[in-house]
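Hi support team,

I submitted a single chain yesterday and got back a structure, but I'm not sure I'm reading the token output correctly. Could someone confirm the output below corresponds to the sequence I sent? I've pasted both exactly as they appear in my results page.

Thanks,
R.
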Amino acid sequence: MRKFALGFLVAGAVLALAGCSTPEVQPTSTIDPALIPTSAPANVVDANPADYDDGFGEWIFKVGDGPTWCTISPGTTASDPQFVTCEQNEASVAYDPVPAPADCSASYGYQIRLWGGKDAVAFGNTKQAQFTCASSSYSDPSQAKVLPSGSQLTVGDITCFVVDVTARCDNQNKNFIVLGPRAWALG
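Hi R., thanks for writing in. Yes, this is the structure output for that exact sequence:
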């Protein structure tokens, strides 16, 4: 009985000390800067927003011939600011996983959001570009039209352009997001 009590006490002490240790922080993967578009191509073609209207008040497009798609939501007031969400299926990603924050128990690193310009700042959104913790897709790309490489779409404060299979979206505050099967960036 004493051996059992001693073993129980030792096991309890080990567990208590393990709980006091500092959690391991996973490093964020490094993306080759050459895969991150910094500006639209010199001969970029402006797309007609009406061609990408989903009929429900948003604009949705597939990114070139890749697995990524983006949805621009209009926003109407400071309490309902404009944003764009770009996303892709986890199975199509070739970059290292993006470590999820402790409060995210869903999928992370496959859906990224950029808030519009001044409305988002007025609303108090300090992180204008961020990954979202998502339990499902924001939108359904099955009926979306392709925004071809070398094209850009502007709706309100947000402009998105496509280079190969990667999208970059910028707001008027010079914040941006990039998402494609081999690259992501926030700025």
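A quick pointer for reading it: The CA atoms of residues 77 and 119 lie 7 Å apart. Let us know if anything else looks off.

Best,
Support desk
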